[in-house]
Design brief:
This protein has about 90 residues and is α/β, with parallel strands linked by helices. It has helices at about 5-10, 30-45, 65-80; strands at about 20-25, 50-55, 80-85. It has a 3-stranded parallel sheet with strand order 1-2-3, covered by helices on one side. Strand 2 (about 50-55), helix 3 and strand 3 form a beta-alpha-beta unit. Helix 1 (about 5-10) crosses helix 2.
Length: about 90
């Protein structure tokens, strides 16, 4: 088992002895995209849980809408449920 996945598994295992909802906050940066890939792998091996990924579009940068679309694309490739929010 790759090291990063093992670390994620070790963190989630004691918290997921019963079916739960697992939520990942996706900023679109490299670190959250790595977590997205690891979560998709975890989901494939532990389908008893509900998975949700949340990206909040604060609208603070000119590229904010583009980031939200990119996050939606990454989620669709991983077949994960998205929760995209726009803050005013």
């Amino acid at each position: 088992m790759p090291m990063l996945y093992q670390q994620l598994y070790d963190c989630l295992a004691p918290l997921t002895t019963a079916p739960r909802q697992i939520i990942l906050a996706l900023s679109g940066g490299l670190d959250s995209r790595v977590l997205l890939a690891l979560l998709a792998q975890y989901r494939d091996q532990h389908p008893q849980h509900r998975y949700r990924v949340v990206h909040v579009n604060h609208g603070l940068q000119q590229q904010a809408d583009q980031w939200a679309r990119q996050c939606q694309y990454w989620l669709s490739k991983r077949a994960l449920t998205a929760g995209l929010s726009m803050l005013n």
